[in-house]
Structures are given as structure tokens and as C-alpha cells.
Write a structure and sequence with these properties.
The structure holds two protein chains of two kinds. Chain A is an alpha/beta fold. Chain A contains ten helices and ten strands. Chain A has helices at residues 43-51, 73-78, 96-105, 122-134, 150-162, 180-191, 206-212, 230-234, 236-244, 248-255, and strands at residues 5-14, 17-27, 32-36, 58-63, 66-67, 81-83, 168-172, 198-202, 215-220, 223-228. In chain A, the strands form two sheets. In chain A, strands 6-7-8-3-9-10 form a six-stranded mixed β-sheet, with helices on both faces. A four-stranded antiparallel β-sheet of chain A has the order 2-1-4-5, with helices on one face. In chain A, α6 links the parallel β7 (168-172) and β8. In chain A, α3 (96-105) packs across α4. The longest helix of chain A has 13 residues, at 122-134. The radius of gyration of chain A is 19 Å and the shape is globular. Helices cover 75% and strands 1% of the residues of chain B. Chain B has a domain at 26-241. In chain B, strands 1-2 form a two-stranded antiparallel sheet. By secondary structure, chain B is mostly helical. In chain B, α2 packs parallel to α7 and α3 crosses α10. The chains are: A alpha/beta, B mainly alpha. The A-B interface holds A 51, 53, 72-74, 77-78, 82-83, 85, 89-95, 97-98, 101-103, 105-108, 110-119, 121, 124-125, 142-144, 160, 164 and B 179-180, 182-188, 190-191, 194-195, 197-206, 208-209, 212, 216, 316-320.
Chain lengths: 256, 320
């Protein structure tokens, strides 16, 4: 089987800063991979480059065996790539249902139709409703997103990414800012995802990352510094090595 | 659903009342009513860009004036009948928008505002300086009202008949735009307005949506511009001016951006204000400017939304 994601010698610098420095990484189909590392380690930059938001300075990106290094965002999405954002990225003035409809419709054949009302596309609406039902958001489907609690918005952030039936899902700090109970719920959502979806997530909550991930990649200053199973990474020496380079302050921050 | 029925009944009542009014009013007042409908189409067309897609244009007069000029030139200089001159104006505006947006879509938000302003100013200066074709500052007088051919029982020479012609075009335009904003495409436009990056990540080709939206918007602006030109049997560079662009933007902001009825109401309010104020003072634009500042400060979502939230229970939107 071809790897859902294979990046090779990926680099990207902003001015003199190497946000990504020669990153090579391959995901197995169905794998759950967590990326850990201090702030500024290059984790979100890696997501942005894979997703197509920013171009790499050098290196290649392959999705499901296809070279997408110079392909536009929407072409990568069409191959089955979806992502969530660290800063909640929803349609704030629209209802929960409308948010879902727009997400479901993105890759539906009807998405460019302007001569017929959307309410005629029962299948799109039914699918959006079904997803809300499945992820227990159906009760609030008429609410406008800006009125929702932060935790619920984070949940919708993930469910929207699932709406286009991705084969590769990038989750950028899905637990950030969540209460303990909400973190538990979000962890459950991710653990319950079908194994046909490969998941790459950035997570500062190491307990959650260790629980979800099959393998863990640790980054620092744009480089991959360690990679292995949670058990291998958890060994005292390794974690210290990952977080020590940034000094004591960054170590405590990462353990919070 | 009940709400949808209410909407249809309301729209039908609106058309019937406006239609009946046209029958009772004096020719002068009928002319004002005609203007309201024309500006209504114009404001709706801009709202597709501004209210639904989040592309604030300060140059929408470009298409309004271009449609009017091309139609007038085809009719006067080339002797084309209405059935050819009118579509020519719309096509010209659509083509102009298609070419211009190859460049303009590299910008967004306030930069888009600036580049649209520049574009309309370019057209304005062409209209002023290319005197052989456009008549320069004097404009092009003497375009005769549409005549749909000998089989059609009415001419539109009389103000009342022309009013009903405009009403018919208004209804067709409003229906077309209604379907447009309620279509899957229209939903995507709202998504782009709310969060462009998310739309791209979801797999939408945002550029293509904006491109088509701007062409549709320009076409309806041209429809309005032509109706305005035929109303006065005259077109001048002022139809391309930044004043017109600013006025139509104001109509949307008075009504409520992101709705179709809001801009129509805004257009009505604007024409009435202009009529009432200009009987008292030549500086009526100044007063309208003050009103605009008031709205921007106290009801930035639009006067209509402000009144609704203030006096009626706020409604939450719905999808289907």
C-alpha cells in the first residue's frame, strides 16, 4: 500500500529562521502519528506545507503516492486530505448545520451549481444532519457558531474536517484550551475514528498524545529529533533529550 | 416550511403593492419608484460581492455605467435594436469584469476596495476624454426607450409603461439572484466571506467562486445601469463616478449586507432621502453622509438589522 503521506527533505525558512529543516517522514496507512515538540519547533509549519497553505523552500510532498508539492490546496483536499486549525477556524456567523453543509458539499458534484437551490440537494443536507447526529451536535444545529462554547467549537472543528470523508486527517492541537472533560471527549472522538483514516496530530498534551498515537515524532527547531513508539519516547532519557535543548523553561511548559 | 411561505407571501405582496402604486402615482412619483427598483437591482448586484462574498467594491459604478454606455452606443451609433443593444451592454460588463478580475483577485479586503475604485476611475476618464464615442462631459442624449417590436402591444415611451417594464426586470433579477444566493454556490460564497482559508482547506477552489461571483454581480449591475439610462434616455460620465459607487455601497449598508431584501429597502430609503433632502438643500449629499456616519457608528450591521434586533426578537438563521 502506498503511504498516505511521505515528505522528503522538506525545508522552509522565514527570513533566516529554519522553520523546517530537512524533514523526512512517512506515514503508514491507518497509522495514528503524533508530533510533539516545543513552541516554534516547526510543527504547524509542517502542517501548512503539507496542506498547501505555504510552499516549501525545498523538498517534496507525496499524498497517497502522488507528488503534490506544487498542487493547490483544493487539489490536495480532493485527494482526501483534511485538516483542522490550531486557532478555531469556522464560519462564525452561520449555523452549525450550515457549517456542516458547506463542509459536506465541498467535494460533492453539486458544489458549483448556482442555478438551483441547495435545499433541493436532499442528500447533502441529509449527510450533514447524519454527521451532526453521529457526533452529538444535532441539538444545536440551528445555533450560530459564534454562540457556542469554546469546547463545542473545537469539537465542530474536528467534525467538519471529517465531513469530506478524508483519508488523511491533520489535527492541529485538537485539545488546546479544552477542560479535562472536553479533552476526554475529544480523545474519544479521535480514538473512535475509522482506521481507514490516517491521522497526523500535533499535541502538547503528552498524556493524550501517548494514548492516541501508534508512533510519535519529536521535533525541535525545525528538525526531527526522535521518532518511535510511545514507550520508546516515554523513556526518561529520550523525553529529556527532546525537551532539554530549549532549556528548563520549555521543559516545564511542555509537561503541563 | 412556514417561514418560507411567509417570505413568498411577503415578496408577492411587495410586488403587488409596488405595482399598484405605479398605477396611482403621478408620472413624477412613478419615475421615483422606477428609480428605486433600478437602484434595488443595482444594490442587490453589489451585495452578491459585498454582503455574500465579503469583497467590498468601491467601483461598482464601472459596470453600471459600462452597461449603460455600451447599450447607448450600440443603439445610437450602430443603430442596433433594443433586443441587441441591451444584451450587448450586459455582455460588455461581464467581459470587463472577467478581464479585470484576473488582476483584481490578487487582492482582497481593503486592497480590493482600492483596485475597484481605480478601475472605475479609469473607465470614468475614458468616458470623459473619448468625446467622439461618448460625447465627453455632455454624455449621450437621445437614446429611445425600448421597443420590443411590432408584435408587442405597448411602447415604453410613457413613464407608467416603462415602470412596469422595470418592475418585470426587477422581479426576474430578484428571483434569479435569490436562487443564486440560495444555491450550493451561494453557500460557498458565504463560507468564503466567513473564512477563506477554511474553505480552501475543505477543497473549494476559492478563486473560481470569486471569479464567477464578480461576473454575475457585474452583469446585474449592467442591467440596472441600462434601465437607468433608458429611464432618462441619457447617459453621462457621472454614471461611472465614485459618487455612484459610494451611493450603492451606502444602500447596502443602510439595508443590511448579506440579505437580498435589505439592499432593496436601502435603495428605496436612499431615493426618498435624496428626493426629500434635495428640496431643502443642494448639499443633500452632505446630509446623507452624516446619516451614513451615524449608521456606521451605531448600526454597523445595517439599519434594518439594527431595527429588527431592537424592536423584534432576534431570529436565528436557518439552512433549508
Amino acid at each position: 500500500m502506498t503511504a498516505p503521506l511521505a515528505v522528503k527533505n522538506l525545508s522552509r525558512s522565514f527570513g533566516g529562521v529554519h522553520a523546517l529543516n530537512d524533514v523526512t517522514m512517512v506515514l503508514e496507512p491507518g497509522e495514528r502519528r503524533a508530533i510533539i515538540g516545543t513552541n516554534g519547533a516547526g510543527k504547524t509549519t509542517l502542517f501548512n506545507v503539507v496542506n498547501g497553505q505555504i510552499a516549501p523552500s525545498s523538498g517534496t510532498i507525496k499524498l497517497f503516492g502522488q507528488d503534490v508539492t506544487s498542487k493547490a490546496l483544493h487539489r490536495r483536499a480532493a485527494l482526501g486530505l483534511a485538516r483542522t486549525f490550531q486557532i478555531t477556524s469556522l464560519f462564525r456567523n452561520l449555523t452549525v448545520l450550515d457549517n456542516m453543509i458547506i463542509a459536506v458539499q465541498a467535494l460533492a458534484p453539486s458544489h458549483f451549481v448556482f442555478w438551483r437551490r441547495l435545499s433541493g440537494y436532499r442528500d447533502v443536507i441529509a449527510k450533514a444532519e447524519a454527521l451532526l447526529e453521529k457526533w452529538r451536535l444535532a441539538d444545536i444545529r440551528r445555533e450560530e457558531v459564534r454562540h457556542l462554547s469554546y469546547g463545542t467549537q473545537r469539537q465542530l472543528e474536528i467534525v467538519m474536517a471529517l465531513a469530506c470523508e478524508p483519508r488523511l486527517l491533520l489535527l492541529d492541537e485538537p485539545m488546546a484550551g479544552l477542560s479535562a472533560a472536553e479533552t476526554h471527549l475529544a480523545t474519544d472522538i479521535i480514538l473512535n475514528l475509522d482506521r481507514s483514516i490516517t491521522v497526523l496530530l500535533i499535541e502538547h498534551d503528552l498524556a493524550a498524545a501517548f494514548k492516541i498515537a501508534d508512533r510519535i515524532t519529536a521535533m525541535d527547531q525545525g528538525k526531527i529529533v526522535a521518532e518511535g513508539t510511545p514507550d520508546e519516547i516515554r523513556q526518561e532519557g529520550n523525553l529529556k533529550k527532546i525537551y532539554a535543548s530549549g532549556g528548563a523553561a520549555r521543559t516545564t511548559e511542555a509537561h503541563q | 416550511m412556514r417561514k418560507n411561505h411567509l417570505g413568498s407571501v411577503g415578496a408577492l405582496a411587495f410586488i403587488l403593492i409596488v405595482g399598484a402604486l405605479g398605477n396611482f402615482l403621478s408620472p413624477y412619483d412613478t419615475g421615483l419608484l422606477t428609480q428605486m427598483l433600478i437602484y434595488g437591482v443595482f444594490a442587490m448586484s453589489l451585495d452578491v460581492l459585498h454582503g455574500y462574498t465579503g469583497m467590498p467594491s468601491l467601483g461598482h459604478a464601472a459596470y453600471f455605467g459600462l452597461g449603460a454606455y455600451v447599450s447607448a452606443i450600440c443603439s445610437l451609433k450602430l443603430g442596433w435594436p433594443f433586443g441587441m443593444a441591451a444584451p450587448a451592454g450586459i455582455v460588455a460588463a461581464a467581459v470587463a469584469a472577467a478581464l479585470f478580475h484576473l488582476l483584481a483577485l490578487r487582492t482582497s479586503k481593503s486592497y480590493y476596495l482600492m483596485i475597484t475604485l481605480a478601475f472605475s476611475q479609469v473607465l470614468w476618464s475614458v468616458a470623459v476624454s473619448w468625446t467622439e464615442l461618448t460625447g465627453g462631459d455632455n454624455g449621450l442624449p437621445g437614446v429611445r426607450r425600448p421597443n420590443l417590436g411590432s408584435w408587442f402591444p405597448w411602447t415604453f415611451a410613457s413613464t407608467h409603461n416603462y415602470f412596469y417594464f422595470v418592475l418585470a426586470i426587477f422581479v426576474v433579477s430578484a428571483l434569479a439572484l435569490y436562487v443564486f444566493v440560495k444555491s450550493p454556490f451561494g453557500y460557498a460564497l458565504r463560507g468564503i466571506r466567513e473564512n477563506e482559508m477554511r474553505m480552501r482547506a475543505l477543497g473549494y477552489n476559492v478563486w473560481a467562486y470569486k471569479y464567477v461571483a464578480s461576473i454575475v454581480s457585474a452583469s446585474f449591475a449592467a442591467v440596472a445601469g441600462e434601465m437607468y439610462m433608458y429611464l432618462n434616455s441619457f447617459v453621462s460620465p457621472s454614471s461611472l463616478s465614485v459618487t455612484v459607487s459610494a451611493q450603492v455601497l451606502m444602500m447596502i449598508l443602510v439595508g443590511a449586507a448579506g440579505t437580498l431584501f435589505g439592499p432593496v429597502l436601502g435603495a428605496g430609503v436612499f431615493v426618498i432621502l435624496q428626493y426629500v433632502l434635495s428640496t431643502y438643500t443642494d448639499r443633500w449629499l452632505f446630509v446623507i453622509g452624516l446619516i451614513y456616519v451615524g449608521i456606521a457608528l451605531y448600526a454597523p450591521q445595517g439599519a434594518l438589522v439594527f431595527i429588527r434586533d431592537k424592536f423584534f426578537a432576534p431570529k436565528r438563521g436557518s439552512a433549508s
